[in-house]
Amino acid sequence: MSDYKNPSADGQTGPFKAPVPEPKVPTLESMPKAETGSGQQKAEPSKTDILVHLLMEREARAAKKEQAEENARLAKEKQRDINAKSSYEDALAKQAKCRHLKGGKNRIRTQAKDHSVYVHRFINNEQIVRCFLCNMKWKQGDTRDTLLRGGKRIPNHTKLGWDDALTMAAESSNQPSSSEIPLNVVSSAEQVAGQEI
Ligand SMILES: [Zn+2]
Q1: What would the DSSP string read from start to end of 124-171?
Q2: What's the 173 CA to ligand 1 centre distance in angstroms?
Q3: C-alpha 116 to ligand 1 mean position (Å)
Q4: Mean predicted confidence (pLDDT) in 173-188
Q5: Coil, helix or strand for 52?
Q6: Domain range summary for the chain, segments of one domain joined by +
Q7: Neighbouring-strand partners of residue 154
Q8: What is the pTM of this model?
Q9: C-alpha span between 166 and 3 (Å, rounded)
């Protein structure tokens, strides 16, 4: 055993041991101590800690601000929706209440019914019947129960269908209008600015 160790130790450890480790270790240890590196090392992590802390605080503030802005935006959006909805509902209520008759309060009861509606023909030949009092527009396919809008059936708040609208227009003293006739530009402009329904 010793015979094997000795030659191997002599052959391998001898040359490796001789130059490096034991004398250099103490000098390496002493070097940082001499430079007071330990003091700097203590200061550096604390600075980093502060930086990290500040960055996290800044991040938290930014996130909080972002959240507040998002909340404000959502509140604004909600209010806008409520306003839009209420003006839409107001329009529907007006159309539901409208008798689509000329004269209003001053109308004589015995007077023949003169409806405030007229047929309008668009350039693409599509026809609508519109009431100029409530801005209701009846379209082909509308029934007393439902209106056909964008391929969908929605409840008809006026309880008057396309046929009723045509009858009202026929009874009315109003002349039909058309998008192609310059004299009716005003009524066309009104329609563009008016409600969808
Ligand atoms: Zn009306």
Answers
A1: TS-EEEEETTT--EEETT--SSEEEETTEEEE-TT---HHHHHHHHHH
A2: 15
A3: 7
A4: 62
A5: helix
A6: 104-193
A7: 147
A8: 0.53
A9: 123
